[in-house]
């Protein structure tokens, strides 16, 4: 099975172009977050998204937790995919899909323990994809992604086996471990940010190596 590749924390049209040239199937554009790397303004997210050709997916990462606020946030960015990095606090996925019928909805699940498996499987019936990451929304300052940490891939594999929708794997991936991650978890797609950067900048050499290692059989 072909494993898709999402390159996250894109911060300029040039980075988007590089990621796509190297083989990215999707790019991630990080909006305001309580912590973590890569946030850019909503205006820049919209600007970058406009430069991305179809059929590349543009993911806007939002930390908003109410459907009304998520809808408003999307209106300011106009990406073709919304990645919700925290749990919904009000409203439903159904309401969001009704309001934005042409937009894909991806829910992040931060893999912490067995409860994360149950949560992911339950939500997998309501969204277009699940993305597994290594944050911790329970901390005083929420970690909602970009930690650079690997989580328990056995739990991730259990989610993949039971999920009703495609599963993306994120969290501490890099050129050295992505092949092992794919073999152990069997995700629909892998997602990387810091693992293909040097001094905060997208590194073409690391990016090309990452994509080669994803594709290697």
Structure keywords:
single chain; 217 residues; alpha/beta; TIM Barrel; eight-stranded parallel barrel; 8 helices; 10 strands; globular
What is the rounded Rg?
16 Å
CATH class category: Alpha Beta
The ordered string of helix (H) and strand (E) elements is EHEHEHEHEHEHEHEEEH
Q: Biggest sheet, in brief?
A: 8 strands, parallel, barrel
**How many domains in all?**
1
* CATH fold assignment: TIM Barrel
Please give the order of strands in the largest beta sheet. Answer: 1-2-3-4-5-6-7-8
Name given to the CATH architecture: Alpha-Beta Barrel
**How much of the polypeptide forms β-strand, as a percent range?**
15-25%
Description:
By secondary structure, this protein is of the alpha/beta class. The protein has one domain (4-198): TIM Barrel, CATH 3.20.20. Helix content is 35%, strand content 19%. The chain has helices at residues 13-22, 42-51, 67-75, 93-99, 114-123, 153-162, 178-185, 204-215; strands at residues 4-7, 26-30, 57-62, 81-84, 104-110, 129-133, 167-169, 189-192, 197-198, 201-202. It has an eight-stranded parallel barrel, surrounded by seven helices. A two-stranded antiparallel ribbon has the order 9-10. Strand 5, helix 5 and strand 6 form a beta-alpha-beta unit. The chain starts with a strand and ends with a helix. 44% of the residues are buried.
